[in-house]
Amino acid sequence: MLQPLHLDAMPTGTIIRSTGSWVDVLVDSSVIPSRIRGRMRLMHGDETQPVAVGDHVSIQAQEDGTGLITEIDERHNCLYRRAAGRKVGKRQILIANVDYIWIVQAAEQPPLNPGLIDRLLVACEAQDIPVGLIINKIDLASSQLLSTVKELRKRYMQLGYQAIITSVKKRKKLNLLRSQVSGKISVLLGPSGVGKSSLLNSIDPGINVPVDSVSQKTNKGRHTTAHTALYPLSGGGSVADTPGIREFGLLDIEPWELAHYFPDLRPHLDKCHYSACTHDHEPNCGVKDAHGRQKISDARYDSYLNILHSLHLGEADIGR
């Protein structure tokens, strides 16, 4: 139950839900609907929203029982992307102060999107956020698709990422996922329809997040989760459920920096003749040489080139 704040109080708490103009701040055991001080928006003009789920904030009590956010503590990390639409060029912060991000894909309905996986991995690498991969709905995979999924899992595990193949329907690897998120602040991130909310309900049924099916016409997920929310887990820790993403525009990464966020390209960077080599057209390139010797897979090198091309365009053509 919402407990009123004393008007002279200046408590601190954590944002556990954001719905745009208003956020819910968890202060001790109370959830305080709060808004943002106007001048704070001016101070963060390069961001679509000054605060995000996971932020630690100070709030000032209001007479109606709500709070006014007055300060944002320094973040130890945050995941963000280039804002789309009319706010292109601004930073959209998706989540802050997390221990681990799980990129969630479906084996089918909607189909796997390795290009989006690699973009999300780059974003997490750039922010030094530990990240892993979940491939869900494996019960829908044909024998041929199952082979593809296993090869994909093997590829990312060889790069040092955790990768789990799950099925809510078959209860596959849910105990493993539950143990991985226990005691941490984790995030499920991926397109609509891949089963993020279903996974969350399965590892902790007390959460009871609404779920929906994939559109049969488009084979894309419906946006059941409209806002990012952080849910406490009964075994300790918490997990954020996020709205589905169909595109992810990278921000604050120069073309020559991109290869540093590909673990399979990194070992070959010191063999390039040019310090600012983009590993595309330059001669005497260690990365291109390694790719030619099959030390770097075609899939990953092609993915690198696709992202590199979009960075050269200033992400005007946001890859998916």
Features:
6-stranded mixed sheet; 13 strands; disordered C terminus; about 325 residues; alpha/beta; 5-stranded mixed barrel
What does this 3D model show about the protein?
This protein is of the alpha/beta class. Helices cover 23% and strands 23% of the residues. It is built from seven helices and 13 strands. The chain has helices spanning 38-43, 114-126, 143-158, 174-181, 196-203, 286-292, 298-312; strands spanning 12-18, 22-27, 30-36, 56-61, 67-72, 78-82, 91-96, 100-106, 131-136, 162-165, 185-189, 229-232, 238-241. The strands form three sheets. A six-stranded mixed beta sheet has the order 10-9-8-11-13-12, with helices on both faces. A hairpin with a 5-residue loop joins strand 12 (229-232) and strand 13 (238-241). Helix 2 packs across helix 7. The longest helix has 16 residues, at 143-158. It is globular. The chain starts with 11 loop residues before the first strand and ends in an 8-residue tail after the last helix.
